[in-house]
Amino acid sequence: MTYQAFYRVYRPQSFREMSGQTHVKRTLQNALTANKTTHAYLFSGPRGTGKTSTAKIFAKALNCEKAPTNEPCNECPTCLSITEGSHPDVIEFDAASNSRVEEMRDIIEKVRFAPANARFKVYIIDEVHMLSTSAFNALLKTLEEPPPHAVFILATTEPHKLPATIISRCQRFDFKRLSSNDILERMKIILEDIDLPFEEQALKVIAQAAAGGMRDALSLLDQVVSFSGDTLTLDNALLVSGSIGQDVFYNVVGALKDKEIAQVLTSIEGLIADGKDPLRLAEDLITFFRDLLLLQTSSELEELLELVTPEEKFLQLAHEFSADTLYRYIDILAKTQQEMRFSHHTKIYLETALLKMAQVPNSGAAVSQNTASIDPELNDKVANLERLVHQLSQQIQDGVQVQNNVQHQKEAPRPRVKSQSGYNAPTGRIREVLKGATKQDIHQIKNAWAQSLSQLQKSQSALLAEAEPVAASNSAFVVKFKYDIHCRMVAENRELISMFSQILSQITGTMYEILCIPENEWITLRQNFIRENGLNQKKDASEQDDGIGISETVNEQPFIDDVQEIASEDPLVTEAEKIFGKDFVEIVED
């Protein structure tokens, strides 16, 4: 008999022999035991993770003569013929080479016939995403309502290429990449079966190179076994797989720690000259730094190590780097690795990354020394600052106590009024605007108001239709809203606020900050501000004084337009405002 590859000879023949995929095995076994199997299954996942093998095991368990059972017996004629691939009722269909609608129609025509000598007729369609659109459409109705004796198992590595109508008619099982431990245990069973001594570190190298695929691991193992002699050694595994030993990485990282960049680049140059792929080198360096982080974190994580063995020199090397430095190294290499995938000059990218890593400061072992040798003068300065802070805190407490006793009403915090819509107006910021508000600024805003609204969308300008600017400084202005809900919607719409400010700035030449407040809150805040700042008293005093300073304050008070609007109720003005609108009526005093 001709030689067969390991992945064919040691293909699992029962759920018990499968590596990993516990969630898939348990679900299928429970369905078999309870006799609750369905008519269509979708197995998706990376290559070499056991999709087709699981489909064959499931087909054997369905048709086993000892059914219902959660494991095929692999002894009855049905199980043996399915294992050999000669059973007439278990049909394997390769969609990659039979993607046309004619092949699918042939299956559909035969599916209605009862199985020859089994309980179920099982169709295993591999690489189902390769079917044409017409073939999918032909399969659709049969897949939804097949005969009671038919079971479809679809396997694919690219489930995103399947139509949603196909996926929705199947029970979907996502196969995951196998862990290094699962692959390691399977390879140990094979090597023990062929009675070949091995070094465990060599198997770790093969498992890492397989990247979670059992078939890739067994193919590589087959190659290493053929290359090796009486023993499967680490050197043989490194040579065949193209991987690099931990000692090489130890020397490279040690030189990187000592900032000996010439030695680092020389080592990398030698590895690439020996045929190592720069992209693979970057990936292995990431894994090496990840192992150093694990050694740094806990000694109980040794089983998770992939490149490094828990030797004393690697433990010492791990503690010579700070965790932040290792994270920076991994981040630089990960970004470089993404850039290398789209370039033909991968060596240059890797060398640039190593130069960048050499410039990352390492604060690993120096932290304790720095903290131990603190400058005595710095200690004195810190003590003086602490003493001053304590004195100032005491004075502030005493001052606050006096002010609370003498001017309690004046310094009492004002509770922020909350409107019915749940919006809190920025009263503190509005008061700051009122302190610097001028008549010239509010007139400039009002003159540009109508033109600015016309440049907004209708839905946006509708929110500002019942709003009005009432006070403005040289950097911000206050908008009074008739309805609380409109005020909240505008204030919370940052995009509208930003757009409206930019439109106003194009007209006025100034970028204003917009502050929104409901009308009822505005009236209360305006009255309190006038009373607290004694603006009415200053106005009375200005009539008796010579008008220097005080009169200027009165003329520039922020409510000049608002006060006139409330105080003057001229019927002509009121009628004109009703006809033309407030924005187009201007009162000129002779």
TrEMBL record:
The keyword Cytoplasm does not apply. It is an enzyme of class 2 (transferase). GO terms for molecular function: ATP binding; DNA binding; DNA-directed DNA polymerase activity; metal ion binding. It holds the Pfam family DNAX_ATPase_lid. Its EC number is 2.7.7.7. The keyword Nucleus does not apply. GO terms for cellular component: DNA polymerase III complex. It comes from the Bacteria. Keywords: ATP-binding, DNA replication, DNA-directed DNA polymerase, Metal-binding, Nucleotide-binding, Nucleotidyltransferase, Transferase, Zinc. Residues 37-179 form the AAA+ ATPase domain. Belongs to the DnaX/STICHEL family. This is DNA-directed DNA polymerase. It comes from Lysinibacillus telephonicus. The gene is dnaX.
